[in-house]
Amino acid sequence: xxxxxxSFIFCLFLFVCGLAQxxxxxxxxxxxxxxxxxxxxxxxxxxxxxxxxxxxxxxxxAQQIMQGAPFDIFxxxxxxxxxxxxxxxxxxxxxxxxxxxxxxxxxxKKNIHPGEDLKILLNEEIKHIAIANPQIAPYGASxxxxxxxxxxxxxxxxxxxxxxxxxxxSQYIATQAADIGFTAKSIVLSDKTKDKGQWSExxxxxxxxxxxxxxxxxxxxxxxxxxxxxxxxxxxxEQAKNIFKKFGYLVQ
Length: 252
Prior knowledge:
Strand content: 15-25%
Structural class: alpha/beta
Number of domains: 2
């Protein structure tokens, strides 16, 4: 009887330790960095799963996944990269939109006052305009779209300073390496930057909707399928939606 009880307690201990050590790896588009940290903290209030966030430009992360990076979930800043992964059999399910992002014009220089009118970018005092690389960062592509819509792209092209991701281009703005720049609304609403400088939300009708999608990746089957699925489902919970809204995203 005592032996059985000891064995049972030992097995239970191992089981609990196993739960505590469960870990998943989530690839996160740079615009979602601070938002996803908040989502992770909320999730961990009721789940012991360890969650490692790998942050980068959506295009770079998608490329890493196709090259075998051991990620379990991918949150992109668009729908095309997740769709490509699904079409090439790297994802377990078709992409699902979790939020819509918004674009802002931001500066940390006191003498510059951004507004919806992008003509401010033509001012002589503005020498450098930060933008995420449009080839791999959806927010950068949206910024190029709006510049072209207003026939400004060719006129300010020489001023553009490109970051590898929205995080890097935002750092250019925050450190004043750039006078002004395009970034995600979620960045300027984060605790780390919400009191820095001035920003103006751009008219969302002036650029294609930044629909952001997530996919559950096949690698999750090789690591911690149940844990990955729990976190994936949590992204569509009311708790997660409320966090997305707090960081300026539109959700359904």
